Amino acid sequence: MKMRQLGALCLLTLAALASARPKAGPEQKCKSGPVDLVFLIDSSRSVRPHEFETMRKFMIDILSTLDIGLNATRVGVVQYSSQLRNEFSLKTHAKLDAMVKGINEIIPLAQGTMTGLAIKYIMDSAFIAEEGDRPQVPNVAVIVTDGRPQDRVAEVAAEAREKGIEIYAVGVARADMASLRAMASPPFEDHVFLVESFDLIHQFGLQFQDKLCGMDLCLESDHGCEHICESSPGSFHCLCLPGYTLNEDGKTCAAIDLCAQGKHDCEHICVSSPGSFTCNCNKGYKLNDDKKTCSMIDYCSFGNHSCDHECVSVLNGYHCRCNQGYRLLDDGKTCQAIDLCAEGKHDCEQICISAPGVFTCDCNEGYTLNKDKKTCTPIDLCAEGKHDCEQICISAPGVFTCDCNKGFKLNKDKKTCTNMDMCNTVEHGCEHQCVSTLGSYYCICPEGQLLQEDGKSCGTCKSANIDLVLLIDGSKSVRPQNFELVKKFVNQVVDSLDVSAHGTRVGLVQYSSRVRTEFPLNMYHTAEEIKAAVMKVDYMEKGTMTGLALKHMLENSFLESEGARPSSRNIPRIGLVFTDGRSQDDITEYAKKAKEAGITMYAVGVGKAVEDELREIASEPQEKHFYYTTDFTAISNIAENLKLNVCPEESQGEIEVKDPCACESLVEFQQATMSNLEQLTQKHIL
Questions:
Q1: pLDDT at position 468, please?
Q2: Are residues 69 and 185 in the same domain?
Q3: Which residues, including other chains, have CB under 8 Å from residue 37's CB and lie 6 or more apart?
Q4: Residue 142 pLDDT grade (very low, low, confident, very high; cuts 50, 70, 90)
Q5: Local structure of 38: helix, strand or coil
Q6: For residue 524, what are the contacts with CB-CB under 8 A and spacing of at least 6?
């Protein structure tokens, strides 16, 4: 941006100052510095011919006092009425004679008064590089008019001033003062002139000459500067000697206290002088070679101490200090080793081994030191496989003995076992039929019944063994009273399930504009715990991001770390989505991925829920996995229907595959393994 403020420096001195020195004549050119000056003259029909001649002479008189040249003052003239005419631009004439000739050849337009249009023209077309405008040179416009503008001038004049054009408004006779002030640059007393007739317009010319040329006010006025006065065209300002700063009055000077201002880098003491400082140190310290920082006097270096280990200098003296692992005795000089084991200041579980100020831990025979280097764990040769027992290994710290599973007896070698017919030799307790296996047995049930969790009794299921995650809509459209019905709906579903750590596990996720796991699958193991937790769930409100909820369920809810049982155990994973409105995000991707991941999806909708979205979420067949009702009060009926679909049908010939890895003993491991083999064999035979 051009340094337009230079124009203000070139045009500063008031008319009162102009009378204090001789006026510049044709032989006394203004040397104030380069200026790009454009005259904007009103040639409307209200300007009479003799008045226009006076205005022509007015411009020539001003130019005669200026230092005209391509490297000094450049001048352009634009004539306006209802039209515009560029008489000559800033680059047209390099000499005064040529400018005077151009002004004398101007023919008035004699039409209306479109002053705003004229200001817009000089801003866009006169003060541009193509027409001779120079960067870093002040732009000055002098507008001469005798009437009220017929268009709006305030906005375009403000834009011109914003671009750095300094505007002088000269009104003659019928000119409107408000319009002149709207055009001119502030302060108005320096830039607005109103004269009664064109014959008096030369008065502005004299003042304008003074503003361009100025005088050395430091030499010709009582400037009042305490130290130094520096002149600028038409003005002056005061300066101070080094080490001083100018006060708010702009004239007097105050010593710069760098210490008080914090503009120093002394470590201890700052000693100030005008604009400078020196550093010093507190008692007991000496100034370093950098003349800024301080070092404490080292009394230990004097060699008059008798410390057993180490001498430490302190302010105005010294004291003794012991090496790590030792403590200073009462004489303040000698050191003694610290035995933390003897003092009981350790946390070793079994054996403490001491060194000065430290200790290490060890364990008794038959034990091994844990990673915490403190506690001990019995060496379990059974768990480490460092035994030769055929069936059961019984561990003691560092040793073991062998035993046999139920139905077997230990041989004389104290390692191997001999099988017994378990169904004939033990009280097996099978309700229907006992099947002996190698060293064990298992119970089976008649067709149409399932073996219960006790492994002995038979019956129909209350609910399947499942991992169930419920996704409930907590958006603001549900409303608080309906959200309470939703929680009751969830608890009705829970009532239909056989909840336990080894049976059905339940997790709950609430979603709106975000997703929150209320509790994972492994948090609660009874129906009562789950129902109590459901009733404490806080309503989220906000939006309906069902797609985001499906993504959260797929990526988080069925992780083993969240309580889902390994997929190898073939325990069904079921997701139940409850919503009352259209999803605000896309559900297609994660509804599909959930079903591809083997999750059986149920979709329950109420009120404004979208049927197409519900069907897209639901697994096949949809009539079994898709539910909808118009009223929240009817969702209890859906909960009743869900009971039928969560339980597997009893006549499908399905078998229960037991997970041997979930057994708590080797007997149970073998029972589960043989049970799986037996059921698979029976199925193939059938």
A1: 94
A2: yes
A3: 66, 73, 74, 75, 76, 140, 141, 142
A4: very high
A5: strand
A6: 499, 506, 530, 533
Q: Are residues 56 and 154 in the same domain?
A: yes
Question: pTM of the entire structure?
Answer: 0.34
- Name the nearest CA neighbour of 291 among 258, 268, 274: 268
Give backbone dihedrals phi and psi of 335, rounded to 5 degrees, phi first.
Answer: -125, 145
Examine residue 209 and state whether it is found in any structural domain, yes or no.
yes
Percent of the chain predicted with pLDDT > 90: 44
Give yes or no for residue 483 having a pLDDT over 50. Answer: yes
SS3 call for 388: coil
User: Quick one: pLDDT at residue 507?
Assistant: 96
- Which is it for strands 235-239 and 228-232: parallel, antiparallel or unpaired? antiparallel
Q: Dihedral sign, CA of 676, 682, 684, 686? A: negative
Instruction: Let me know: does 363 contact 376? Beta carbons within 8 Å.
Output: yes
Nearest-angstrom CA–CA distance, 679 and 245: 101
**Is residue 46 domain-resident?**
yes
What is the C-alpha separation between 170 and 206, in angstroms, rounded?
13
Query: Does residue 8 have a pLDDT over 60?
Result: no
Contact 52, 108 (CB under 8 A): yes
Q: What is the DSSP letter of 221?
A: S
Render pLDDT for 584-609 as a digit per residue (tens, 0 to 9).
999 999 999 999 999 999 999 888 88
367-369 and 358-362: which strand pairing? unpaired
| Average pLDDT for 142-164 | 90
Whole-number pLDDT of residue 662 = 43
Reading the block at residue 330, the tokens are 């009462």
pLDDT reading at 43 higher than 70: yes
pLDDT for residue 31: 53
What is the tally of structural domains in the chain? 3
In a domain, 199, yes or no: yes
Asked if residues 230 and 236 have their Cβ atoms less than 8 Å apart, the reply is yes
Determine the Cα–Cα distance for residues 626 and 610; give it in Å rounded to an integer: 12
* Bridge partners of residue 321, in order along the sequence: 310
Domain enclosing residue 44, as ranges:
35-213
Whole-angstrom distance, CA of residue 604 vs CA of residue 639: 10
637 or 487, which is more confident: 487
- Residues contacting 91, CB < 8 A, separation 6+: 70, 74, 131, 132
Strand partners, 491: none
Mean pLDDT, residues 640-666 taken together? 45
Cα–Cα distance between 347 and 650 in angstroms, integer?
A: 60
CA angle in degrees (0–180, nearest 5) for 418-421-427: 120
C-alpha span between 636 and 490 (Å, rounded): 9
Q: Give me the phi and psi of 89, to 5 degrees please.
A: -95, 180
Q: Looking at residue 131, which CATH number applies to its domain? A: 3.40.50.410
Nearest to 82 by CA among 55, 57, 113, 61: 113
DSSP letter at 124 equals I
- DSSP secondary structure, 627-668, as one string: EEESSGGGHHHHHHHHHHHHSPPTTS---PPP-GGG-SSHHH
**Together in a domain, 522 and 635:** yes
**Contact, 584 vs 612, CB < 8 A?**
no
Task: Enter the tokens of residue 337.
Answer: 């080793």
Query: What does the buried/exposed string (b/e) look like for 553-578 if buried means 16 or more CB atoms within 10 Å of the residue's CB?
Result: bbebbbeeebbbbeeeeebebbbbbb
Residue 187 and residue 166 in contact, taking contact as beta carbons nearer than 8 Å? no
Is 431 within a domain? no
- Residue 336: closest CA among 345, 344, 348, 328: 328
